[in-house]
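Why do we care about 3D structure at all? Because function follows from shape, and shape follows, mostly, from sequence. That is the central idea of this module. The next example makes it concrete: a single protein chain, its amino acid sequence, and then its structure expressed as tokens.
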Amino acid sequence: KARLLGPPDRLGAAPFSAPPPPPPPGGGGGGGTLSPSSPLVGESAGPAPLPPLIEGFADRSRAFLSVQTGCDGHCSYCLIPQTRGPSRSLTLEHVLAQAKSFLASGFRELVLTGIDLGAWGRDLPGSTGGLASLVGEIARLPGLDRLRLSSLDPSDLDEPLLALFADRAVLCDHLHLSIQSGDDAILASMGRRYQRRQILDAVGELRRLRPELILGGDFIVGFPGEDEAAFARSLDLVERTGLLLAHVFRYSDRPGTEAARINPSTRVPPSIMRDRSRRLRDLAAAALRTETRRWVGRRIEVLVESCAGGEAFGKSRGFLPVRFPTITEPLPGEIAEVEIVAIDPGKGGLIGRKKEIERT
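And the structure:
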């Protein structure tokens, strides 16, 4: 059975664990995470004492900046509200202080993470302006080259947040949406906070603002009541939105959830779930292969994640994997300017030739 991943898992950060000891001087990459002593507002009468700022984690090329935990949603298949509690936000001041600390440590890319990232600020006193305000403040910080959002609900893409994709160049050409299904009846049964039309409209506006946006998304196949017509609407949604990076999970009961009590007669057989999972992944993978061909001959910036045996590996601003040979081995977190010379069909990525490495 597949484990449903929280937003930080998709980009490689441990979800909301207590931070480890600071790395030795000169250590690489990192991810700030919320600890029990973090300044969260919600369940208690006020913010808890500020924890020490995190400098980074060893062997990381980007810094994961956790800004929120918990969830106020009521998805019928999920236990997060019971296990993590209601949505609680880190204060703006602490988030900015942590972001500045990461940048001072040499990180070029920050990734905002949260269990329900779009809920940031709703529990804070006063008018915060929501997630768009937080993103705007971080995007203005000196020394930041890339700002990535880990995962959002389609309902989080309001006008202020969409506008930032037009105004803030540091926002990466990549977004991951928690979609789950392309069928309105299934979305309603799941207890999701949006419908199919809202997804299409939001992505359409994003593509108008950022034509080269690389879109990823989560899907659950085999949710109780999902017939072939409902699943076909998920396939159609993938095609209409141009989604390239699909995280597909087969539904499984979580004891204590509403979905676990749905009439057994509506259950989808495991063999059909496996087939639907394969078909959805294959559809996105085929679209990804087509997209990668467009990049051949272009120069792009690659954030280096690892380097060994004369070859470096990293990600583009759109989160496409890129590998390229190099004589002088760059360090994780450095940015290389690379000319794309071929596609990497085995891994759905790109093969490049290094022009220059920027030393941090």
